[in-house]
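$ ./design --mode recover --in tokens.txt
reading tokens...
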């Protein structure tokens, strides 16, 4: 059983890992359209695939590509470094160029014998109707207006949303079999109760069609005064507003107000449009910056921080000028809306003959009086999660009618949520149990990737518009949309936000999981049998996953603990058959036959009082099996530099391989043997050449200081005299490979490079080295547990090099690159060998296991000669 601290580490990884987190653009979209994916496809020139991705969530791609309020862009990662991705425009590009009727998915479930009424054909009602029809319900949409689309059709100006496009996209519901009844007003043609009684369920999807005017003003009912809703509705249905005059004043600072200003300009008789708002600047207005900019470009004149003081009318009660007053503030000390004015600071606009109040709209709910509960002038009372009416279980509300819709895409999401609630209701199921309610809400993602914006280029590509003279007196669509080149260029800016940085780096993890969150969640929820036991034995223990992880999640410790648990349940021995020969090797490496200790040789006068060896060189296991000659020469160099009476050697395994295999008890025992011997020798300083020995002894040494031979030469004793400048005439340029075991030992990295400079050899740095080095593949005994993975890892590492000759200071790494077919040297070959040239390239490692042990014995014998 894993220890609690390991299980807690697993829980933290499962909780904090961002591998399954959605990008902010997807999480922020109430319909959770996969913007990341369709943008990628557009960038790759795959428009047909892109529109398929969009249509998985949205049946109005062209409409939303024009008028969506794009909350996704507000959360785009690019906001940190510049302008956000133009996600809406890219959606439009895909729809305009690749959306074809013949590719529309017309599949529906078999009929379930239930009939649902949807009241209102706005975006939320259409979405509810679509989802219910696909689920096998008979659906009829009842619409008060003579046209379909609700506020999409009569609230959004035609120059932003062409009517033929909207109708074309709504026709998808016709093809699915949704029925529409236009000019049908609930409460006039049939009561709401009759609708409820005549259907299995009713979805109320009426929008905010009830406009407001400021009734606190005298003459608020004068001729030429409109609510924004009434003005836009008439303009949408007739492309004119017959009662408008020549000079229009729009009151309000939001996007609806901007739509009204620009619509008014397109009415044939209008010559001038003014706009006033309480806000004191364009920056504080709630309208989008681009909407304000478009209105300014078309000639709208703005008067910020102004309100109407008086409406003047003529003898026919027609508006005949206004008096404005200065707005001093909009909110009181408690931040409540309470505007204050300076009545002495006025402005006259005598030409104004038409006023449009864009100051809010309301749901017209008179048809439901006595049947549904409604908040004053707003929405019906519903359960926030299920959208079921508080007073009638057969009735569900969406969009503005539910009090949730502010933008079109959120309205559609409520339609989807209500449709699922209706289906659960019709099937007699719980409306909440086992339901992913966040699928129809914006939510915050945990995905937050650090980005160096100084290294990233790319400016947002603006959409072109038709010429000002051409658009100002027509309802032609203003924005032209992206060309293929522009769309692909803009799509190329996308950061394709995701984490999985560990997955991109670690070859092994991809063999077992999609991300650490999934892997450890399965373990925690289902037990150890839920994951492949080989996953732990496939970890190189290189810690690249932790380095890449923005949260520095520690996977290595978990995998190591899993191996230890496996061994503990198998009598302390690794259960994996492939690794059992390595256990036998550990036995030999710690056996007396293959080990020796060499004490310092005291001077004759000091012999009676000297009983310790201050410096003990521990060569490890790999180097003694590779170059007995190098081990002997290191001892000679140390004795020459530090004194014969101070230097000894210990040929004894540190136990690292046992730890790699999870044999923790045996590791402790084998490591203890070495530590006991070091104590017995009176060692004060352990000198290593093996990175693994260095790390093990640094962790376990009792009272000794641990230093690498490389740092010792750099800091104290220098390189052997014969090696100075030996490589200055060499024709070889080397790449370094730093061992992943000592990636966090920068002095080692610096010292070995200093050594190369002292010897005069040329070397060239590579990107993935030092603290960011990659494993050669041998780590964690993967070379033995999974030879195929080992080959993939070392092949990837070899691709990092830009020279034909590799030098390293790890014996296992050197052997790996030789296995990979590269000219691979240990830095000791250069330090103690002849000047190296390209024609000396050859294989240097042992040919078989027998030769390995022979070299180990030779090293023992070479060391024993120092006892004489």
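writing sequence...
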């Amino acid at each position: 059983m894993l220890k609690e601290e390991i299980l807690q580490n697993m829980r933290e990884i499962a909780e904090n890992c961002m591998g399954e987190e959605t990008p902010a653009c997807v999480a922020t979209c109430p319909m959770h359209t996969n913007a990341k994916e369709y943008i990628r496809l557009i960038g790759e020139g795959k428009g047909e695939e892109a529109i398929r991705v969009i249509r998985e969530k949205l049946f109005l791609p062209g409409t939303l590509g024009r008028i969506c309020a794009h909350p996704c862009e507000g959360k785009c990662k690019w906001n940190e470094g510049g302008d956000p991705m133009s996600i809406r425009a890219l959606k439009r590009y895909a729809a305009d160029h690749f959306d074809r009727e013949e590719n529309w998915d017309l599949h529906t479930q078999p009929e379930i014998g239930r009939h649902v009424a949807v009241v209102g054909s706005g975006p939320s009602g259409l979405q509810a109707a679509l989802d219910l029809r696909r689920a096998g319900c008979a659906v009829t949409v009842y619409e008060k207006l003579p046209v379909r689309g609700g506020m999409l059709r009569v609230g959004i100006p035609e120059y932003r949303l062409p009517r033929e496009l909207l109708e074309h996209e709504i026709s998808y519901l016709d093809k699915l079999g949704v029925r529409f009844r236009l000019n049908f007003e609930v409460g006039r043609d049939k009561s709401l109760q009759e609708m409820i009684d005549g259907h299995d369920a009713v979805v109320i999807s009426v929008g905010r069609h009830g406009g407001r005017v400021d009734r606190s003003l005298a003459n608020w009912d004068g001729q030429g005064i409109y609510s924004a809703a009434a003005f836009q509705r008439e303009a949408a249905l007739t492309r004119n507003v017959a009662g408008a005059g020549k000079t229009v004043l729009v009151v309000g600072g939001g996007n609806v107000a901007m739509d009204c200003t620009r619509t008014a300009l397109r009415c044939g008789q209008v010559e001038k449009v003014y706009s006033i708002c309480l806000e004191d600047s364009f920056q504080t207005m709630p309208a989008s910056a681009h909407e304000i900019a478009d209105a300014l470009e078309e000639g709208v004149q703005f008067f910020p921080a102004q309100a109407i003081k008086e409406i003047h009318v003529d003898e026919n009660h027609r508006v005949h000028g206004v008096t404005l007053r200065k707005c001093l503030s909009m909110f009181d000390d408690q931040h409540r809306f309470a505007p204050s004015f300076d009545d002495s600071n006025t402005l006259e606009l005598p030409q104004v003959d038409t006023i449009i109040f864009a100051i809010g709209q309301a749901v017209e709910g008179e048809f439901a009086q006595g049947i549904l509960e409604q908040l004053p002038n707003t929405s019906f009372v519903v359960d926030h999660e299920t959208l079921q009416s508080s007073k009638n279980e057969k009735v569900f509300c969406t969009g503005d009618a539910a009090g949730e819709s502010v933008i079109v895409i959120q309205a559609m999401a409520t339609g989807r949520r209500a449709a699922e609630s209706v289906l659960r209701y019709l099937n007699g199921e719980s409306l909440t149990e086992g339901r992913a309610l966040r699928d129809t809400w914006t939510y915050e993602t945990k995905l937050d990737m650090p980005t160096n914006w100084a290294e990233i280029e790319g400016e947002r590509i603006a959409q072109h518009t038709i010429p000002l003279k051409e658009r100002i007196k027509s309802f032609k669509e203003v924005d032209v949309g992206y060309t293929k080149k522009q769309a692909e260029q803009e799509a190329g800016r996308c950061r394709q936000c995701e984490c999985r940085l560990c997955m991109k780096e670690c070859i092994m993890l991809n063999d077992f999981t999609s991300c650490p969150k999934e892997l450890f969640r399965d373990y925690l929820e289902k037990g150890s049998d839920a994951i492949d036991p080989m996953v732990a034995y496939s970890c190189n223990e290189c810690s690249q996953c932790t380095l890449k992880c923005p949260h520095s999640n520690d996977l290595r410790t978990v995998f190591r603990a899993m191996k230890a648990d496996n061994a503990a349940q198998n009598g302390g021995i690794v259960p994996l058959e492939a690794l059992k020969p390595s256990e036998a090797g550990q036995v030999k490496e710690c056996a007396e036959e293959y080990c020796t200790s060499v004490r310092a040789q005291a001077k004759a006068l000091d012999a009676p009082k000297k009983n310790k060896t201050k410096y003990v060189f521990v060569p490890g296991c790999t180097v003694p099996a590779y170059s007995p000659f190098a081990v002997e020469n290191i001892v000679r160099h140390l004795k020459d530099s530090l004194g014969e009476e101070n230097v000894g050697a210990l040929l004894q395994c540190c136990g690292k391989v046992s730890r790699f295999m999870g044999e923790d008890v045996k590791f402790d025992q084998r490591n203890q043997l070495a530590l006991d011997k070091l104590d017995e020798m009176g060692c004060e300083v352990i000198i290593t050449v093996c990175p693994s020995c260095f790390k093990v002894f640094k962790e376990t040494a009792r009272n000794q200081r641990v230093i690498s031979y490389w740092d010792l030469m750099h800091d104290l004793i220098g390189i052997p005299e014969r090696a100075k400048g030996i490589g200055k005439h060499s024709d070889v340029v080397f790449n370094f490979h730093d061992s992943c075991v000592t990636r966090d030992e920068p002095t080692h990295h610096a010292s070995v490079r200093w050594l190369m400079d002292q010897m005069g050899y040329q070397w060239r740095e590579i990107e993935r080295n030092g603290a960011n080095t990659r494993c050669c593949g041998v780590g964690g005994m993967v070379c033995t547990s999974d030879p195929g993975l080992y080959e993939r890892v070392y092949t990837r590492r070899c691709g990092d090099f830009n020279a034909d000759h590799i030098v390293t200071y790890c014996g296992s790494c050197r052997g790996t690159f030789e296995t990979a077919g590269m000219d691979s040297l240990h830095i000791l070959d250069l330090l103690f060998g002849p000047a190296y040239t390209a024609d000396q390239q050859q294989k240097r490692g042992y040919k078989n296991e027998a030769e390995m042990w022979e070299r180990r014995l030779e090293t023992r014998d070479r060391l024993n000669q120092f006892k004489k």
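exit 0
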